[in-house]
Amino acid sequence: MFNWRKNGTKDNGTKTICLALQGGGSYGAFVWGALDRLLEEERLVIEGISSTSSGAINGACLVTGLLEGGRLGAQQKLRGFWQGISEACHARRRSWFSMQNVFRTERWDPTSRGVFYDLMSRFLLPYDFNPRTMNPLRQTIADSIDFELLRSCDQAKFFVSATNVKTNKIKVFDCPNITLDAICAACCLPFLFQAVEIDGEYYWDGGYVGNPPIYPLIYGCDSADIVMVQTSPIVIDEMPKTASDVLERISEISFTSTLLRELRTIAFITERIEEGEIKRRAGIKQVRMHMIETDQRMDGMGGSSKLNAEWPFLERLHDIGYETAGNWLDENFDRIGEESTVDIREIAM
Question: Which long-range contacts (CB under 8 A, 24 or more apart) does 332-335 make?
Answer without folding.
Answer: 332/290, 333/15, 333/41, 333/43
